[in-house]
Amino acid sequence: MPEDLTVDRADITLAVRDHGGSGTPLLLLHGATRTLADWSEIADDLIADHRVLSMDLRAHGASGRGARPWTAGAALGDIEAVLDACDAPEAVLVGHSLGGMLAALYADAHPHTPGAVNLDGFGMGRPDQYAGLDPETVAEGLDRARQVARASAGQAFPPEALETVRAQGAAMAAQLGFAPELLEEGVRRSLGETGDGQLFLRPERERAVEMLDAMYELDMFPVYRRLTRPLLIVRGARLVDQGPELAWFDELMAAYMKGLEAELSALAADHPHIAVHTLDASHAMLLERPRALAALVRSFTTGPHLRS
Fold it and tell me: Would you say the pTM of this structure is higher than 0.90?
């Protein structure tokens, strides 16, 4: 049975789940506004031949908010503290979205790391990466997207609106073809309450805005190009229709996906220790395709690059 534990580090207490298993250790890192609950099905598969750990990133889930602002550097320090506390300094890092970006950043900063897996973690990229769109137009669209994200980040809502939040999750699950129950633990772990009785989904607003700003500053391709450790990058092949009000965003993301495909292909061709795989899934791939992702991780951890 999985064991929930905590790791104390300086200004923060971090929530960790030891899923058990034996073999190559893995640390699973979730995406922005998500929790370690996203990894439940994949972890159940991987414990057959791996020791599997997952954690809630700072200000997410059951982890503390931290006394300092949210930065990528602080999150990387948290990861190191968890690996040391769990006696797994040689773990392969497997991350989704923001977690995938942190996995690659950690491997870059810690050359002893055996390897890393980045599942659809690219941030918003650079304007020149958006194929077929003028960079100036892209820059304006990215600024608009950031404003929308910042406006909604960590916003409080009345308790009676919690059922609406759950209904939105159920609608997404139905659209993407997975059980809505897979979202429930994440909602419970993320739920916070303000002093006046309002609810919010963590991270709270201040930390959420700091996290978004930190993500917008990241350009992962220079990191990929200087990495010396094996890296698996999995790219989702499908976009989720955001509806007519966000048609401009869908157009932006379609151009970004085309640009990413070309740049990732060139990256893999020039760096033999980097493998790129395109998966028939949306960005919610952890919930849509857990077995396929577990198989890709297993293939990576048993492959020739990681063993060398």
Answer: yes
